[in-house]
Amino acid sequence: MPIPLVPYVPDFITVHLGAPDEDAQNVIVSFPDYIKNVASSEIYPTWSEAAIYANIYAQISYALNRVYTEYYRSRGYNFNITSSTAYDQKFIYGRNIFENIDRIVDDIFTTYIRRVGFIEPLAAKYCNGTTVTCEGLSQWGSEELAREGYSAIEILKYYYGNNIELVTNAPIAGIVSLYPGRAYRKGDTGGSVTLIQTFLNTISGDYPLIPKIDPVDGVFGENTENAVSVFQQIFNLTPDGVVGRATWNKMVLLYTGIKNLSELVSEGQQYVSADLQFPESITVGAVGPRVSSAQYFLLIISKFDPRINSVPVTGEFGQLTFEAIKNFQSVYGLDVTGVIDEQTWNTIYDTYSAIINVVLRGGLRMENVVEPTQYPGRNLEPGNRD
């Protein structure tokens, strides 16, 4: 099961003003300013508003996918994205920004596209649709659809499929590298170790000499050390069983490649950990990714709050899930119905999100998270004080 990472909107993004291997300047710009520049360079401000919104959603999502997957960082580059349209989006450093695009981006730069049931921002590729065509969004085609009365989301679904959704109000943070900032070795525990184990188990599907790690428990034991050593031998890294930056970057590169996370057609990482709005009431007999997400949230919460019953992640809302929901509702002072209504969904998700923010993004060891109490009503971040 892939570990749920936390998609976010970066404060700033580093843009390489050329092709990846070209000797060119790197510039650091705020993420909204980057999107305003791209939108002003890629589309016309006189287009229908629905087309402008659809294109900007695609541009945001594409850029966030590059950041989220560490597409260039994991390849040894010191930037997040390029200005070359042969590789990425058009960016003209120092250009003027159109007034309506400036306004629209300020309103929606924390909104991105993803596939339903996946967590990573969609690699929303696009082309102009005239001189260049592709399997993604057609820029001129989007304008034609808008003139026919299509809304922005209808335009996006026309090109990317009906199984997409918009994530709104994604958190804003500085660029947070997946790399934990230090080498990990036998005896370590925590969320970063869980990531290492997840990476290796996924990669082992293509490289079966790497032994599977079972269970994925966030404990860097002998099995994990052995798997790391085999991985390092296969890829000509120092086989010391220690996960330093070089080993980490190689794992990220292979993992995102195997899962096609940087491609429009992606296997995808399931289970959400960014803002997910309440879909509709979920009750006994329901099936699908929304049920899986709720079950996974409860499973994680139960690891930190012994009052909460765990439930297997099956995607099917059966009797065990019904009883687990009633248990959660009782513990958190909600109406005990066994139905996931809006209040129950939001409380489950907020509780789960707080745990993920502290354990994964805060780098805390599992044993440091003890005696959970009633959810405090806000996400806990590194540096918070009671």
How are the SSEs ordered, and which strands pair?
Blueprint: E1 9-10, E2 12-16, E3 26-30, H1 31-42, H2 49-68, E4 81-82, H3 99-108, E5 112-115, E6 126-127, E7 137-138, H4 139-147, H5 152-160, E8 164-167, E9 172-173, H6 191-203, H7 222-234, H8 245-258, H9 289-304, H10 319-331, H11 342-361
Parallel strand pairs: 1-9, 2-4, 6-7
Antiparallel strand pairs: 2-3, 5-8
Helix pairs in contact: 1-3, 2-3, 2-4, 2-5, 6-8, 9-11
Protein described:
The chain is mainly α and 386 residues long. The protein folds into 3 domains: 9-173, no CATH class; 191-258, Muramoyl-pentapeptide Carboxypeptidase, domain 1 (Orthogonal Bundle); 289-368, Muramoyl-pentapeptide Carboxypeptidase, domain 1 (Orthogonal Bundle). The chain has 11 helices and 9 strands. The chain has helices at residues 31-42, 49-68, 99-108, 139-147, 152-160, 191-203, 222-234, 245-258, 289-304, 319-331, 342-361; strands at 9-10, 12-16, 26-30, 81-82, 112-115, 126-127, 137-138, 164-167, 172-173. A 3-stranded mixed sheet has the order 3-2-4. Strands 1-9 form a two-stranded parallel sheet. Strands 5-8 form a two-stranded antiparallel sheet. It is globular and about 55 Å long. Residues 1-5, 271-275 and 359-386 have low confidence and may be disordered.
What distance lies between the first and last C-alpha atoms, to the nearest angstrom? 34 Å
Report the radius of gyration as a whole number of Å.
22 Å
- Report the average pLDDT across residues: 83
Sheet-strand content, in percent, reads 5-15%
The overall number of domains is 3
Give the low-pLDDT segments. Answer: 1-5, 271-275, 359-386
Q: Give the helix proportion (percent range).
A: 25-40%
The helix-strand sequence is EEEHHEHEEEHHEEHHHHHH
Taking the sheet with the most strands, its summary is: 3 strands, mixed
- Please count the beta strands (DSSP E, at least 2 residues each): 9
Count of helix runs: 11
Shape by Cα distribution:
globular
Structural class: mainly alpha
| Largest sheet, spatial ordering of strands | 3-2-4
